Every structure is written in structure tokens, then in C-alpha cells.
Amino acid sequence: MANDKTSMQLIARGILAENPIFKLALSMCPAVGISTTVMNGFMLGVAVLFVQVFSSMTISIFKNVIHPRIRIPTYTLTIATWVTVIDLVLAAYLPDAYAKMGIFVKIIVAFAIITMRLEMFACKETVKDSFWDALGMGLGFMVGMMVIGFVRELLGSGAVMGYDVLGFKPLLFFILPSAGFFVVGLMMGFFNWIELYYKRKKGVK
Amino acid sequence: MKDIITIVVRLTVSCLLAASVMGIFFILTSNAKKHNEHVKEQQVMFELLGYKGEAKPPASLGLHEVYRYVITGNDKQSIGFLAPKGGEGHGEGEGFLLVNIDLNGQLIKADPVTLSEKDAIEAEPRKKAVEQAVGPGYEVKFADQTIIVTDNGKRIAYLVGGKFQGFKTFVHVMLAVDPNFTILGLEVLEHEEDPGLGAEIDQDYFKNQFKGKPFEALKAIGVVKAPIPPEYLEALNGKVGEEEILKFREQYKDKDVYALTGATISTKAVADGVKGIVTKFAYRMAVLDKVLKEQQLAVSF
Fold first, then answer.
1. Mean pLDDT for chain B?
2. B168 within 8 A of B194, measured Cβ to Cβ
């Protein structure tokens, strides 16, 4: 299966048409657990972006020597290796960033979205396309996390990016993990509604 | 059968590859990481003592490291405190004193240990020196280290490190306590709690709840599952004046700590952990002080 999309289309697909959180509904645990603020969402997004890009490219390079029976363990191993490497490098050379991002990097190993992208895309396509696809998916995840984080931060603690804008806390419930599901569900509905709206408009024309 | 062999071989090869990549990166980065950790520890130590940012510690301030070792041998256990030697003619590289105390708090013996200050920071040479001082037939195990802070020869604080089980894995902390074991400050060095929930333990408003808790209150510290009153929260975040903060600290000093929203287990772990570290430390310090006083041993603090 050759890929017939350009790099820009691949990125756009990751963010919009196949957004990992709103469309594919993957990696929901971190989405509901961690996206309590915009900043948390952003940090996790950046960490996922890097791991996704590196793992996708690695798998794409080695796609011909990976035995199909053991592809999933190989993917997990690849992801774990990159997570460890990024963790070590951050801790050694960017201690300030590590202080903020360290905990996010360590929890990535088990993310479904990364394994799924390796299985669906990277193990069939060229390195270049895998890179763009990984970038798109990583960005899509980051955007999704930040949007959820924005809603939850605003409603839960009355702040945006840590700055108090409302001056009071509307609903503490939104900080709790269970509220993450509500926000994700509402967001999914919203995105689907926009899609339907545009499709209908096109149909009328 | 052939399949199994292929799978085994390939998985082994991939594992070896992954392991070597991780190993290479570990070796490449370990020095820089150690250096960063050391720098951070120094910074945390001074911050806990109240020298933040621009404020430089005065020259009269002295930091004295005391290392604790568990010595086993001849079916007996004892505790060895490796403390810097003091007395007349204080100078560099004067060496250390190993105070060996049995479990009943009686001195077994006190030996001088020749160890330069540079070597004392490294775990391996330090352990060798202690092993030599204790003599053959004894097993020596490093337990922990404490820093005793003096100002003009008078003790002003202790810096105690420690770790305890958090929600997921160990939480490493450093505590500053005054000579009466009232908490001066708490810093979380390393943890892997969940972001947004338990990870809030490294936020100022949580850590500051422990500030100023006297030893008596700490011994019975618990966790309240209630939101922090807004005025108190502002004081904890340092958004009000210094006097106001002290007033709140006084008002809440005997109270339990407020649990973090959605992270009661992490909160409880920290409260219990801090309690454990300080009570054990207070006991050990009392034993060591008693022996030092009875035997007229000269140490630098």
C-alpha cells in the first residue's frame, strides 16, 4: 500500500480527520488523567510528539527485518528505548525542562496511540512519510490534550495557563479524572457536529 | 519449531540492540546527570535554609555532613556515625571520627578516620575508609546522611534526606528542621506521582503546609479531606505579606495537613513519610549527642 498523500495532508490528517483523541479515541487514560491544565496537556503532547516521531522513523527504517509474529513486542521495545533515551538526555542536558517534563516522559511507554501508528503506518511506509505522519499524530494529540486542558482548567480552577481569569472556581468536578470523560465526550460530539455540518453544506451545493 | 527459533533469535537480537542503545546513552549522560543532581541538591539545601536567589549564605555558616552506617558482624549490629573531627586547629582535610554505637545507645569505640573532604563525598572511598576503621570481620552498609548546619559554631538546623513509598514509587525528599525538630522546610526532590493529581505534592502550597510544624504536632500528624480555606491557601502560596504568613503558620501549626484533591494517598504518604523521617532522625540525634557528650568526643559541630 503506497501512500498517496503529501506531507501537509499527512499532518492535517493527524490533527483533524484522524485526531487521536477526538476521532480515533486512543490513549484515553492520559487524556482524562493528566489534561487538567493547558500546560500539562502541552507538556505531555510535546513528550508524545518526540517519542512518536523517533519510534515511527526507527520502525520505518527496520520494517523489512521485523518478523511479523513479533512486531508488537518490537514496537514496545522501540518505544521503551526511545522513552529511556529521551529521559536520560533531558535529565543530563536540560535539567530545567526535565524538572517539568520528567514525569510525563516516563508514562509514555504504554500509550496506545504510538503503537497504533507504528502498526498502521510506519511498518508499511517510507521513512519520510512516517516522519510526517508521526508529526501530524503527535501534533493532533498535543492539540487535543490542550483543548481538553483548556476546558478543564477554565471550568475546574477558573484559570487559563495558570493565570486566574475568572477569579473563582466554577466546578471543582472538572479537575477530577472522571470529568475528563465528560469533556472528551462533549468535544467528540462537537467535532463530529462540525464535520457533519460541513458535509451537509457540501452536499447541498 | 523453525518459527520458534526465528522468533527467539530475533527478539533476543532486538532486546540486545535496545539494551546497547540505552546503555550507550546512559554512559554518555550519567556524568552530566550526576553533576545536575549535585547542583540541584546544593541549591535545594540553601533554599531550605532560606537563602533563595540573590541572598548568599554568610561565611560563618558551616555545613557538616554526618554519614550513618550499619555495622554487622559477630552476630551483633551497631550503628556507626562518621562525623567530621573538630577541636583545636580546625583546618582542611583533618579527617573524620567514626563513632560506633550499639543498639542500646552505648559507645563501643570511636576511631579517627583519615579521609579527605573530597573523598568523603564519593560513596566508594568513604565506605572503604569506614571498613578499614571498623576492622575485618564486619560488614558495613551505608544508611543515610545528614547535614548539620552551624552558624558561628552554634547549631541552627539539620538537613535530613529521606525517601518513602508514595502512590506509585518512592518519593525522595529533603527536610530542614531546627534543633527542636520543628520543620523549617520540605522539598520534594524526586517523585513519579500522577501529573495533575499526586504530582501536586511538589507545589509550594502543599509543601508550605509543613513549614513551622513543631515536633509534637508532627508526631500525630494526619490528613484532612477538605478543601484548603481560601485565605490560608493565599498565605501558603506566598501571596500575602510576611507577617500574615507567620500568623497563619501559627494558627495552623498544630493542625493536620489538607489533602490534595484526588490524591489523598499521596498526601497521606508524604505526611507519614515526613513524620517517620523526623521521628527517627530525632531519636538518632539524641543518641549520638548523648554519646558525644558523655565521652567528650570533639566533633566539628
1. 82
2. yes
Q: Which of A48, A62, A72, A74 to mutate to test the interface with B (most CBs of B within 10 A)?
A: A74
Q: Residue B27 carries which side chain, given as an amino acid letter?
A: I
Query: What's the CA gap between A70 and A198, in Å, rounded?
Result: 42
Place of cell 500500500: A1
Digit-coded pLDDT (tens) for B242-270: 788 888 888 887 888 888 877 888 899 99
Of B14, B29, B195, the CB nearest to A88: B29
Interface contacts (A, B; CB < 8 Å): 81
In the predicted structure, residue B197 carries a pLDDT above the cut 70: yes
Q: What residue segments make up the domains of chain B, in order of their start?
A: 1-57, 61-152, 156-284
Q: Does the beta-carbon distance from A74 to B6 stay under 8 Å? A: no
- Asked if the Cβ–Cβ distance from B33 to A85 is below 8 Å, we say no
Could you tell me which of B29, B49, B100 has the C-alpha nearest to residue B71?
B100
Spatial contact of A143 and A73, defined as CB atoms under 8 Å apart: no
Q: Which residue's C-alpha cell is 481538553?
A: A148
b/e per residue, B198-226, with b = 16+ CB within 10 A? bbbbbeebbbbbbbbbebebbeebebeee
Nearest CA distance, B158 vs chain A (angstrom): 25
Looking at residues B223-236, what average pLDDT do you find? 83
